[in-house]
Write a structure and sequence with these properties.
The chain has one domain: TIM Barrel. The strands form three sheets. Strands 1, 2, 5, 10, 11 and 12 form a six-stranded parallel beta sheet that branches. A four-stranded mixed beta sheet has the order 6-7-9-8. Strands 3-4 form a two-stranded antiparallel ribbon. With about 350 residues, the protein is an alpha/beta fold. The chain contains eleven helices and twelve strands.
Amino acid sequence: MSNVSLKQMRGHGYLVLSLDTELVWGYYDDDDARERLFSADGSRERRSIERMLALCDDRGIRATWAMVGHLFFSQCEGCSPCPVAAWRDDHRGFREVYDPGDAARPRPRPKAAHPQWYAPDVRDLLLAASDRHELAFHGFSHRPFHQMDADAAQSEVQAWLAVAGRFGVKPESIVFPRNRVGHLPVFADAGFRCFRAPDQTPRWHLRRFGSALKSADDLLALSTPRVYRPDELRREQGLMRVPSSAHLFDFPRGLERRLDRVGLQRLRLRGIAKAIDHAARSGGIVHLWAHPWELRTPADEDKLDYLLGLAAEQIAAGRLRSITMSELSALANRAERR
């Protein structure tokens, strides 16, 4: 492993924002959660994506939009082999994608394109913004890579590259489904350059006291999300490891709604706000991430706009730079070669 020289990247801090763009694919194996969390026709989730994109553009923030590959399709094309059909019988969620039909038939009949499983409109929206944002890999079917063998991983990667390649997308960054890293050599061989790594900051209070103390910590800002030094960037099996700092919506939803109702929606964000300030003043890296569908209410929009506004102020002052995962990786690679 080689580290990036701190001296070669100092001068200002960096903000990385990565967005797991998946619609219902993130809950392909949880029917109850899909019904509870998502709209039936995908309209609410599409509005969330549009609003998140608009907020980023209004504040001059570049983002890495990590997209599930199946969403690139307008309809089922009967691909062979199909990473979805091959294991659909193990997951009830795919009833919405495929008509099981006669068990004797070797392949299921695809249903009409369901707006939560196919998203050519989302694809086109993000492609139109590719001059200021990055499109990245988030699995073809959102199947976790730590649960598959190398052949299955290869199939997922190639299926994603094949459909995205039709639209000129050549991804460099990986956001692993469910943040479970796996099969890095497969990605290195396919030309990827970096991946988002889970935050590995010790969480002693979570282990001992659970989420209640974490919520109190968030509200009181006793600790802040990890801000990484440039020299903490390193390679793993040929790929640059880009650690994450904080999940923006990692807070109990019921408590959050109570805060929202009394106008205190920004209270739990004080730690993240401190991390943005610390990154700007120390020349560090703060990496925030979220699912666009988590932006569900005007209060949620206010939270995101508040944080992006803080970052925009630091950018205007010359203390912070908004950067995608691939751009950060490219900077780190250049620093290594000097």
